[in-house]
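ENTRY TYPE: protein
WANTED: fold as tokens:
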Amino acid sequence: ARPRIMLMDEPFGALDPLTRDTLGDEYRALHRRLALTTVMVTHDMTAALLLADRIAVMRAGRVVAQGQPAELSNNNEPYVAELLSTPKRQAERLNAVLAGASAG
């Protein structure tokens, strides 16, 4: 069987970062090659931004924004802005921690 739609519920959540990154790339290639429509549920905004063509952001059971990743950056919803800024803040904190570790 060749499904046209794939439902994935937190598919990469319990994986280590290296495996998650590799499988994400491999799934994206498979998705393109088979022309699949994929509905992926995730709480990982980084995964959503890197893997999705379109994202629906939900809050309290309601869709508060939807669109392509770049379109979401123009959304006026404060919750969406906070979600989008979180991966960057985490990367900045990680860089600061690593810089401190290498300096000490």
Notes: The chain has four helices and four strands.
